[in-house]
Each structure stands twice: as structure tokens, then as C-alpha cells.
Amino acid sequence: MARDEHNGFGDWGGYFEAKKSKLEEQFTAASDPFRKSNLFAGISIFVNGRTNPSADELKRIMMVHGGTYHHYERPHTTFTIATNVPDVKVRNMNLSKFISAQWVVDCLENEKILDYKPYLLYTNQKTSQPRLNFGKSKNDSNNDSKLEEPPLKKSDSNLDGILKELQQAVAASPEKEAKITNLSTTSNPSHNAMSAVDPGFLTEFYKNSRLHHIATLGAGFKQYVCELRQAQGSKGFPKRQDLKTLTKSTQIGSVRYVMHIDMDCFFVSVGLRSHPELRGLPVAVTHSKGGSAATDVPVHPQADREAELELFAQRFEHHLHDNIKADKVRSGFDKKMSLSEIASCSYEARKKGIRNGMFVGQALKMCPELKTIPYDFEGYKEVAFTLYNTVSQYTLNIEAVSCDEMFVELTDLVDDLKVDVMAFVGYLRQEVHAKTGCPCSAGVGSNKLLARMATKEAKPNGQYLLDHDQDLLAYMAPTPLESLPGVGSSMSYKLSQVGLSSCGDVQKITLEKLESVLGKKQAQTLYQNCQGVDTRPLNYEQQRKQVSAEANYGIRFSKPIEVENFLRQLGAEVTTRLIDAKRRTKSINLKVMVRAAEAPVETSKFMGHGVCDVINKSSILKHSTDDVNVITSHVLKLMREAHLPPNELRGIGIHLSKLEDVNVVRKENILKKMFVKITEKKKDQTTVEPQEVPATNSKPIPEETKVKPKEKTNVLSMLTAAAGRKSLNEDKVRNEPSRNYDFFGADESSLVSASAGQFDPDILAQLPDDIRREVLTFKEEYLRISENDETGRSPSKKLCTRIPSPPPLALAFSPSSSPLNESDLQPSTSKAAIARLEKRATRKEYELGCRSDQIVSDYIEELPKHIHPALLDYISRPVEEVPCIEEPNFLLQLDYKNLLNEWVTKEEVPAPADVNLMHGQIYKLVKADKMSQIYDVMKYLCRLINSKRSNSCPWHMAYNHLESDIQKKMIELQGYNMHFTETIRCYKCVG
DNA sequence: ATCCTCCCCTAC
DNA sequence: TAAGGTAGGGGAGGAT
Has A308 been annotated as catalytic? Predict the structure, then answer.
């Protein structure tokens, strides 16, 4: 729920569906042959109650003049037209949208959009206290002696009546009026979450963060394109029929057309829909109210703008080629000027030198008449949806770049329909404009780079084709390097230092020379781009590679518990995003901004982070997770070990990387569970007569194929051991107690004080009540057992020699048996830690093949069924500290066929440990690029299974799983799939 | 030579 | 007052 509030993608599909009908309604109007003008383009009205002109008449006016009529009020309805608004209805309404019907009439008469303010039924004064605009009530004099006179127009005869009506209503109920007066400021008293100690802070912050919206909307639309493509099927594009009337292409032969389409100063355009009177003026979207509110801001008495500026300049000395940063240093910190940032500004404002990201105070110095408008995050989302939905009616070959920008591959569409490409682009842009009321620009070229360049030419509100016949070198030559994608202030500075400032400059030098300035890859890309060459294909379905959540604003703590609470919230947040992305993480990184030693304690920007040092610490997991408890406890531990005073924190972030697909993991689990079940059954069969095996394997197990419990655990492992190596399972089990997993980890201090069986109270506190009791019960049980057992210093040993009943959950929480893994407590920069981590990583695959899965499986099976998944996850983790013995890959040995043969022959169903071993060995082969060997192994194995185990679905599944795992790894590591000629032939377990 | 990790840079 | 997020690419430099 909270998630939806800040990124709004939780209900993606639903939102789309709901919008559809409305959009259609809008565009029907747009293509109406009776259309007389586009006067009200982008403006929507809702009529509340009786009006003059009537609702029907207003509807007609809107339709004929390009506007939209809403039959019920929507959050983004531009205006609500009314004469009087009953108090009950006002309660939850945005008072700033209520205007008189006369506005519509007057706009029509003047043939332009007039300032709606004189038509407001209620006005917001700068105190942001809404008040009735008409007349004076008895209470008003207390609040404000200067009451605006109603700016009635002469023609507005009906307003007198409204005025009277309204006054009467108010006079009759002074209480009600008081309610109205308080509405906008107090309707949400909980929204005063000023700093991160406040429980509502994170939500409030994200709700108001432009950068957060830009990022999450962007990610959301990438996902949206994927969803649209996957839902597409063979539906086709009926809307393409409409394009038949367009100019035909005169192009002979096929040419590649890539379109880049981009809304013009997106936030401003959307904002101007509800401030039409500001069109043509310098406008900026910002949190600051502008005017005197931006030039005389209250500054904290202990904030020292000068000192902070000095330090900032010093720290970013090497960044001063970045104009925005340099300007901030030069003039941004002046006295009492607003330090609120400009998210987007109109072209008129840009002409005055104002740029996105600038401080409002600074911008006002350059352009005192600058108008500021507030954010409209819902509006951005809605317009962005409309943009994407409009384009996707014609093609789904879309690469989403951000919420207001995309690449579209038009080659096929142009070929199929034989339309002139720019005729189509014009048609599309017009449709977008009509539906959204916002202008957009589009560029077309033969690759992404050129399409982008063309868009630059096209802006604002235009389109441009970079012709194929054009001399590309000549065209690119005068282009400044900075305007190429990927060249920012830093790189362009670096290049200017060696005398390169335009594409032409780069065209003249050799690639080698450029490589000496930049890295290899960057040099190559830049070199090509300077010649107008760009070989990147469009990326239609983008996979997430990292997920993060951070807040570097409003972070002010005094106690550790506050930090902890915030980290829990942030941990929950980032986990939600991870789960949404259908991924799991193996690497958890904590990022902390700490006040720089010399920086003033109070920042210049209200609640800003000031000048900071950044600290990163990370934790690598052996198995991917999307469990909030696991992620949060790692984060808490990383924070604890950083030993930072809470009051010095200025920013906190959690980054998750090394992501894995959640589906693959699930599949594995299903398989594993199935194996566990089957082995359980088999165990029973040693005492009980043959019985039905689970549904996947409907055939009774023939008596002779049954194996003794010891053998059945891992035949293949044993076979490989018999072939000349030691069984590593035994080794590991004998020598190494289980590691105390971080989930239950504590910092050093608590470790020292902890007695056997204790574990991190953080973690305990996070568990649901029933499970916490469960854990405690197990803990007691464990303690009892270990006390009675002389050799019981190592519970894992005990576990492995013979499984006690109930099984010792202590494996999971006994610090005495295994010292806390030190590497997890080291800063990520510690070389020792890195060394350890790396060792661990290489060991891991090896462990895959040799861990005692049967024991773990048995153990899990005996746990209460409702036990927390995080515990299961932990318990089923491989034991870590294995003496590192280099294991030759048996699949590379000459006799591998014999081994496989024996394995398949001996086992009715494959044992999990053996399957794991296979996975591990195959993985090594993929990594080692031994494709032909993989091919041979798989072909042989598949034939074996088809001939000897045609009735054993567990074998089939094991094989299929192995194959899909290989393909996944191949894509990951090699970038392509393998083609296996043999497939499992089973009619029962297809798919 | 190739990999991995920790950054920095860039974009919106 | 103010809401300074988030994802991806790639270089540097060390480990193997």
C-alpha cells in the first residue's frame, strides 16, 4: 500500500485499463470532424451542479474546442466548474480547481485561455489558507483585514446570484465556514514528518521527491513495455488502419528508421495544463513558492552558508567544470535565497539562463519575473501513460528511456504500411498533444544516436528527420562533444584538456589517441558516435540488475534506535521493490553519508545533507534472498559495525545487486522439495511394502531398484569419491561446525557476552510471535541436548552423525559453535575481507556439489511446517567453512560415461546431493567454456534417462532442470543458448 | 588475459 | 525552509 503511494506501479495494469476508456473518449473528440478549434486542448472540466451555461452546453463547447469533459471528477480534472459547492462535497476536494462557468465563456469569446484566477470560487492566499472569494463573512476580519474584492466581470451577471447564495450558506453556518478555512492546511496533520525520526517520513519524502519519481516512473515504464509486449500475443495493431490516409512513402528500398520521442520540458508542460495563463512566460516547477518566499527564507541560526560554500567549493574543485555545480558555488548560497531546486523550467526561462537543477534563489536573480508552479506527480504519471499507450497502439518495438522519453523502431511499420515516416511522426505527435495537452518533439534517424540528435534539432514542439543521404561526418562535425549521450561534465572536461571539444576534433584524431585519454570502451563508443555511428540495438525488454532505496534528505538522528527504525523501514522498502521486480539478491550494500568533519552541523539547505563523506559497506550472501528479515538484519549489522554516531548521519541508502531471477530459484525449491518427499517415501519403503510414489511418478517402485538409506543419499557423490577422491561430504561434516549465519549474527560485543544458543535479539524481535516462541522452544531444547552431550560442543556435528528428534534448530543460532564470520564485519574496503569473500565465492560452486543435502532435507522435513521461511532458508544453506580442496571436474574425465551410467542405473530417482553435484560440475564447464563437453555429457545423460528411466519423472525433471539451468548460465556468461538435440521423451511430465 | 569489487560518471 | 533518487556502464586496480 505504502509502495503504491510512492511509485504507483503496484496497480499498473488496472491503472491502464481504467485510463483506456477515458483516453478513447478524448481522442474521439480530437478527431471529431465538427472540431472548430483546439482552444481547450489539454484542459478537462467537470461540472458540479447547476451552472450557466448548462453542463450540456459546456460539454459541447469543450468537445468542439478540443477540451475534455469529465462526467465525474478525477484527480486530474483541470477545473471543476460550479456555482456553489455544498460543504460536504468540499471536504475532500481541491479548492483551487473550482471556477465559474464564465471562464469557459470568456475564453471562447476572447479566443484564448484566460487566467482562471479571477474566476476561482475559492482562492488560496499565500498563507495557503483557502478562503471564500466572495464577500466577507463576520469571521474573516479576525484573520486578514485585506480581503480581495471579487474580480467580477461585467458580463458575469449570474455570479451575483451565486455570491448571494454562497454568502447565505456561509452565514447560516459559521462552523462550516471555519472548516472550509482550515481545509487545505490541516486536512493532513500527520504530514508534518520533518525528519527521518518521524515514522511517516520516508513515505512523505518519497511522495515529494522529484528524483524519486523520475527514477521510479522510468523503471516502471520499462516494465510496462515488457508487460505490453508479453500481453500482445498476435493481436496486431488495429490502429494502424488509421494511418492508411497518410502520405505514402516515396522511399525505394528499405531504410532503418529509429524514432526518439520526448516530451518538451515535461514537468512544466504538465503543470501548465492547470495554469494555462502562464503559457509563454518563464516558468519553473519547484517546491518553493517563489516570490519573496524564495528570496527571504528562514535560515537556521547555526547554519553557516559561507563556511559550507567554502568547503563545498574546496571539495568539488575538480567538479567546477560542471556549470550547474559551479553556479551553485558562485551564487547559490547567497544570504537568504531559496535553496529549493528547479525540477524543470520552460523554454522562456531557459532563455534567461535558468537550468534544471538550479536553486530557485539563484534563478530568481537571473530572472526576477520567473513564475513557479508546484509539482503534479499524478499528472506526470497520467501523461506518461497516455504517451506510452498512444505509441503502443502502432508498435511495441519501444525502448523506454524514461517516463517522458522513448526510442521506437519504425522500420517495420514504415515498410508494412508504406507511409511516409515523418507523416506518421506528425500524426503521432498531434495525437499525443491532443490527448495530453502537452507538446512533444521527435527525431528520426537511422540509429539511436542520430534519432537523439534529430530530436535536439526538433525541439521545442517539432520533428526532424536526419536524412540518410546526409553527409554524416559533416553533419556531426560541429556538434559539441557534451551533447553526445554519455558525455557529461567530467568527460567533456577531460576531453577539453587535450584539445577536443567537438565531434569534428575527434574525427581528426586516431582511436588510439582517444583511448589514451578515455578507457577502451568509452573511447570506441565516442569515436564511433562522433562519426554518427551507433550500433546499439533497441532494448525492448530490460532486466533489472540492481535495486536500491536511499534518502539523503531529512536524515537527523540522535539515538541508535532511531537509526535502526529507519533502516527497518528502508529495508522493507527496498525489499518490496526487489520482490516487485521479481528478483532476489545476493549482495547487500549499505551506503551512508556522514557529515564531513569540517562541515557545519547545521546545513544551509533546510534538512539537506550538506558536505559529506560517503561510506559503503557490503555483505555477500551465499544464496539469493528476497526476505525482508534477512536483508534488514544484514543492513543493521553493517550499520552497527560502522560505529557511526547517529547524529552525524546525513544520508542512508540500501543497494541490492547480484540479482537472480526469482522463478529459477523457485523451480529449484520445488525440485528439491519433491526429492525430499520421494526420499521420505523411500525411507518408509524400507520397512513398509511398496506403495504409490507421488503423483509425478505414478509407477510403483520395483523392489529391486530400492537402495539402502546410506547409499541413496548421494550415489553419484560416492561414485566420484570411489573413483579416487575422498568424499567431501564426510570431510566437511566431520571437520566443520556450521557457521553462525549473519541472520542471527550480532556484533562483537554481543558475541562476547552471548552464551551458547543465544542469538541476535534484533532478529528475534523481527520474527512473528508464534515463530519467535517456536525458536525459543527449539533453543531450549537444543541447550538441553547439548548439555547432556559431552561431545556436544558442535551441534552440526551431532546433526550429521545422527539426527536427534526434534532436530536441533540450534544449527541456526549457536554462536558458540561457530564464531561469527569475521569477513562480514569488516568494512567492504578491507582487503582481508575481500580476500575471504572471494575465496568463499570460488568455494561455493564446489560446495554445491558436496553438501550433505539429505541431512539438511531430513532436518527441514522434521521442522514445524509453519516455520518462518527465513529460518528454512538459513538452515538449508550449505555449511560454509570448508577446507579448500581443489576438486577436479569428473565430467572432464575419460570415464564420466561410466559414472553417469552407473548413477542412472542405480537410482530410481536421483538424489538431491547428486543433482546438485551435477549442477555444480556443469556450471564449472559453462564457466570454463567447455561447450562441446557439456553437449556430450547432456546428450549421453539424456539418452541414458530416456532408455533406462523412461518412467521416472523425477529423473526427467532433474534433467530438464539441469538443461534450463545451463541455458540460463549460458545466456548470462556467454550471451547465447546451446542447442541440445536430445530431449526427454515423457508424455506425463511435459512442461 | 580475465575476473571481481569498488568506485565514479551519466541520464532522466 | 524542503523533499539532494535510482539504474546502468565502465574504468582502475588487485587477485587469480
Answer: no
